[in-house]
Amino acid sequence: MHLVHIIPLKLCYFVITWQSSNWKFMKVERQKLCGTNYPVCISFIVVNEFCERFSYYGMKAVLTLYFINYLHWDQNLSTAVYHAFSSLCYFTPILGALIADSWLGKFKTIVYLSVVYVLGHVVKSVGAIPSVGDSTIHIALSMMGLILIAFGTGGIKPCVAAFGGDQFDEEHMNERRKFFSIFYMSINAGSLLSTVITPILRGNVQCFGGDCYALAFGVPAILMVIALVVFISGSGMYKKSPPEGNVLLDVCRCLGLAIKNRWMSSKYDSKRKHWLDWAEEKYPKRLIHEIKMVLRVLVLFIPLPMFWALFDQQGSRWTLQATRMNMAFMLNALLILMFVPIFDVVVYPLIGLCRINLTPLKKMAVGMIFAALAFGAATLVEVNVMKTVVEPAPRGQCLLQVYNLADSDVKLSIPGSNLFSQPIKSYEDPQAYQHLELGGNNKTITVGINHNGHFHECRETFTEQKAYSLVLHSKTWGIVCQLVSLKFKYCSNRFINTRSEAVNVTMAGVDFYIPADYGISPNKTANNVHIAWQIPQYALMTAGEVMFSIPGIEFSYSQAPANMKSLLQAGWLLTVAFGNVIVLIVAEGAGLDQWMEFLLFAGLLVAVCIIFSIMAYFYTYVDPGELDKLFPDKTVNEDEDDLKKDQTDDTLYLNSIEKSTNM
């Protein structure tokens, strides 16, 4: 007779075999990937993260353009809502960590909040269907979908990375460190594909008579369903640590008691080495020591939001910068997939050969410098873009510029407007574009022209958000008006030919045919700033991200006690949330030109980097695994007693079966 009972213990199984009245104990290791020390279940977590990030970044890739082109919001409002959503996505991890550590555990938290995530995508997709209600319904559904997505993605964020780290044995620290690099590559592989595919779905696939935002949001919903299915498929292989009670509540109560006792203490009371020690009368020393560890890391996190304030503008300000350039080239998360292995295999080993101890905190400081340099490069690009681009007018207005090619000065009068009140010189560079109020989608206006004491009128129709050039030239019978509509997205060029014969002009490889007798060439784009000029800023920002974000995740996990890893991951993600809050404050309150705003962010990050470097210098790394040696509490003994009790129960059970068999 052969009976087997399996007792799960840490990352392996003890199989107790009873055969012919002899007990045998065998330690069975969990399945590993291709002879490595990586558990097989890691592959499910990595694929899940790839699909989830495809879903998230695919939706965000078109979100700003969706606000502008579909909901008809202006750039500042679109940027504000974009960063408010991003900020919410990084505030909700606190909720996810609380649920995981106190109630459901990491596995169930990921599963349940992924369902909320999927529902958010579905609602968002429905809100992008033009036939579903009016603009108010579209806005309501879009905001509801974004809120659900924020709770879904934010809730699982602190759990997935920590859950992956939990799958490794403590002796496989190097493998766990590399896992975080692989994990981060899966994030950016999903981002890479999504930021290429979803804009194509939006722009190249037409539905409902326009850009297909519904499909662009629907595909991320499908990917999130796949992410959920893949994650659940590995359920039987995971190490699932049960929740250990309301850790966050215990932490808050301990902090409150320590503050209260410290405040109420008198000068005659015995002194304590640390203010948290005032809670020792009620809480165990181990918990107090764990809170000290977490607080030291959280204090170190205080300067970090400034990095994310710069980083997350890739999806807002940098995207809007790109839309005003020649977009024949597209750059995205491909650089991450290149840089992560380059840094791990080449850069860091070379630095090690120079006997430089590049700790995670030092890497993060260098990452900040790279991000500041990236915004310096973005400033230079923005200055050149502004020279070649005319910003569109808001709704209800158009842009108007006047060219006077007559033989003398002219003076314009526009009913209900004081624009062009000064005489316009003959053959002089025109004034900058002026905002002409229309009061609606379009308006027909009679423009009065005073030339050499004679009054002439031109009746022209203007459409909102377009740019116009009004060209005036004189004939024997008076003034002739030519209203020309111009592109405002790129640097647009037109030629006016005052000669009596047609001419051809070639500029920057672009041919212009110009008719005779004040003929005007077709509007063509030439000599504009190519989007490839954004490569340096993206390369610098990517280098900064690799050196800041990956070591940051690893640092957060390695410095957290076992029962607070989700909590500290949530603290790390909160730095991203506050970074987006900084963008909101600056974007809405500073009122600076875009290039000045970029330069301001770069300078602020340099200052913050100096502060962070000083703080990091005084930080002492800890090993949470040493807590069991420092505080040999009853938990370990209780676990051993439980195991012995299970073995005793099994023995009694098997003996009863043996007796019944012999009867």
From TrEMBL:
Chief location of this protein within or outside the cell: membrane
InterPro entries (UniProt xref): MFS_trans_sf (IPR036259), POT_fam (IPR000109), PTR2_symporter_CS (IPR018456), SLC15A2 (IPR043381)
One GO cellular component, as annotated: membrane
GO biological process: protein transport
Keywords linked to the UniProt accession: Membrane, Peptide transport, Protein transport, Signal, Symport, Transmembrane, Transmembrane helix, Transport
Membrane topology type: Multi-pass membrane protein
One Pfam family recorded for the sequence: PTR2
Subcellular location field: Membrane
Signal peptide start and end residues: 1-19
Keyword Protein transport recorded: yes
Listed GO MF terms: oligopeptide transmembrane transporter activity; symporter activity
Residue intervals passing through the bilayer: 54-73, 79-98, 110-131, 137-160, 181-201, 213-232, 293-311, 331-353, 365-386, 567-586, 598-619
Similarity annotation: Belongs to the major facilitator superfamily. Proton-dependent oligopeptide transporter (POT/PTR) (TC 2.A.17) family.
The protein's name in its UniProt record: Solute carrier family 15 member 2
Organism from which the protein derives: Oncorhynchus kisutch
Lineage of producing organism: Eukaryota, Metazoa, Chordata, Craniata, Vertebrata
